[in-house]
Design a protein that fits this description.
Elements lengths: L1 H20 L20 E6 L13 H12 L3 E5 L14 H9 L7 E4 L2 H6 L7 H4 L3 H4 L3 H4 L3 E2 L2 E2 L2 E13 H6 L11 H11 L11 E4 L4 H9 L18 H14 L6 H9 L22 E7 L3 H10 L6 E5 L8 E11 L6 H11 L3 H13 L15 H10 L4 H9 L1 E4 L8 H7 L8 H10 L4 H27 L3
Parallel strand pairs: 1-2, 1-3, 7-8, 10-11
Antiparallel strand pairs: 3-10, 4-5, 6-8, 6-9, 6-10
Length: about 500
């Protein structure tokens, strides 16, 4: 009933906008038969948020990939469903609003990018791909850590289309210059911090300092899973969140230690500079300009989607120092690198789910499609380098990617030998509420109380039990609703 009311309310809203404006509402799905469809061809519709404008003179990788798919599979015609603008503005309609408008008329795109898989399952927008996917050897070649997150009770409700790895890029040349060992793929957390602290210089008053570490806020999400192999992102286990655990307490203690050590942690230095009793002037410590572009930061948190512009600066000679990606340091013998994954959903109303799956595979983890993506990035002027590593652990695919990114061989080792924890917002029911938007108490959302913890304004020991109770209550409510909807798939 909630699903029906939601869609009905949205349709009423769009009708009201049409009535007020006196013009056709651009959110209303209107489908006409494609006059270019040849006899015997199957039409598949497609939508994603990375298509750019159809009027743009700049080439778009996704559109080129669709053209290449049609050449590879001439019996399939792909029609792109463009996302409309919000009436009276130049802003794109919100992704779920766009999909709701399509769903209300049973015209969801056959393949669409997914930013909230549980929402699609609850609203019956997602096709159960289990039979198709599990018969595909290439799908089974994707790491279980990656494909498993969009498989619920054995049901495949979405498939991965890109994976981005997170962790630290280290400036090996700068560590050497400072007379210190530089961290490597297998360096443990204790040594990583010790090397960085020894090499940093946050005490200069004549702009000759060296930045130590930047990017510590993510520790609260990935570090507990290094301490306990049964945990995933933000202490999540099969039984729910474990924010009252010793592992999370240890994590918060480490975070607060770093957040208050301005001798080598940039965020701590900023905090100190902003304090009322501090006389620190950031501008007097380091050379002018961005520290990373200056080659003057030892270790900085990045996602692998940043490698394109970093490698371009290396190739052009702007960066003359040696950089390497080490992911997250080893903790207690564990190295579980955090990743952000993107997914495709095949619409529940698709008349051609096998062909839709084939398109989604081509655009994401499929070997033939990925090799075509690399080829296009090399040969089409104006196209940026491929910005995600192969999803399959396949030698030919890895060779193709790392030919473009020769300076990041550390990532190859991580892909070939590592295990991963996946950031949950796109696939985990209840995570966004439990971590960010849900109510903690009368004055705070969950994000507010976590911000206060990280800032040291609240002590974890005082709220540990209540925090865990609230997180799991929010999570379990969403999980139960989702599992009820999943039973019908």
């Amino acid at each position: 009933m909630k699903k029906i009311l939601m869609i009905f309310a949205f349709v009423l809203l769009t009708v009201g906008l049409v009535a007020c404006g006196g013009t056709e509402d651009p959110t209303t799905p209107i489908d006409t038969e494609d006059p270019t469809l040849l006899p015997g061809q199957i039409e598949i519709t497609y939508a994603s948020w990375d298509l750019g404008s159809p009027e743009s003179e700049e080439p778009n990788m996704q559109r080129l990939m669709i053209e290449a798919f049609e050449e590879e599979y001439p019996d399939i015609k792909v029609r792109i469903i463009e996302r409309p603008k919000v009436p009276g503005t130049n802003d794109d309609l919100g992704w779920n609003e766009f999909l709701a408008a399509r769903a209300s008329t049973q015209t969801l795109p056959d393949v669409f990018q997914a930013d909230n898989i549980p929402f699609y399952v609850i609203n019956d927008w997602a096709y159960n791909l289990t039979a198709i996917a599990t018969a595909d050897a290439e799908y089974l070649n994707v790491s279980e850590d990656i494909r498993g997150v969009s498989t619920y009770n054995g049901k495949v409700m979405a498939i991965p289309n890109a994976v981005h790895y997170a962790g630290y890029v280290v400036n090996e040349t700068l560590y050497d210059r400072q007379g210190q060992n530089y961290p490597e793929i297998d360096t443990n957390m204790t040594d990583f911090l010790a090397y960085t602290k020894a090499a940093a210089n946050h005490a200069s008053n004549n702009n000759t300092g060296v930045v130590g570490l930047e990017g510590i806020e993510h520790i609260i999400h990935w570090y507990p899973a290094q301490l306990n192999e049964n945990y995933r992102w933000f202490t999540l286990s099969d039984d729910g969140f474990n924010l009252d655990s010793t592992e999370f307490t240890t994590t918060m203690e480490l975070y607060r230690t770093l957040r208050t050590d301005s001798t080598y942690v940039l965020e701590a230095l900023y905090d100190a500079a902003g304090a009322e009793d501090s006389q620190i002037e950031i501008g007097n410590i380091f050379p002018e300009g961005d520290p990373f572009n200056n080659g003057n930061i030892l270790a900085k948190w990045f996602y692998s989607w940043d490698f394109g512009w970093i490698q371009a600066n290396i190739n052009s000679g702007q960066y003359t120092w040696d950089l390497e990606f080490i992911g997250t340091p080893v903790v207690g013998g564990n190295k579980r690198v955090p990743i952000v994954a993107d997914f495709y959903t095949v619409a529940s109303n698709s008349a051609h789910p096998e062909e839709a799956y084939l398109l989604a595979k081509w655009m994401g983890y499929g070997k033939d499609g990925y090799l075509k993506r690399v080829e296009l990035s090399k040969t089409v002027q104006g196209i940026s380098q491929v910005n995600f590593a192969p999803i399959q652990n396949d030698v030919e695919l890895l060779d193709a990617y790392f030919e473009l990114y020769p300076n990041f061989q550390g990532l190859r080792t991580i892909i070939e030998t590592g295990t991963f924890i996946v950031e949950p917002p796109k696939y985990l029911p209840g995570y966004i509420a439990a971590r960010y938007t849900g109510t903690y108490d009368a004055e705070n959302k969950m994000s507010d109380i976590m911000t206060s913890l990280m800032a040291g304004e609240v002590v974890l020991a005082d709220i540990r039990a209540q925090l865990n109770i609230r997180a799991n209550a929010l999570y379990n409510e969403a999980k139960n609703n989702f599992e009820s909807a999943l039973q019908n798939k």
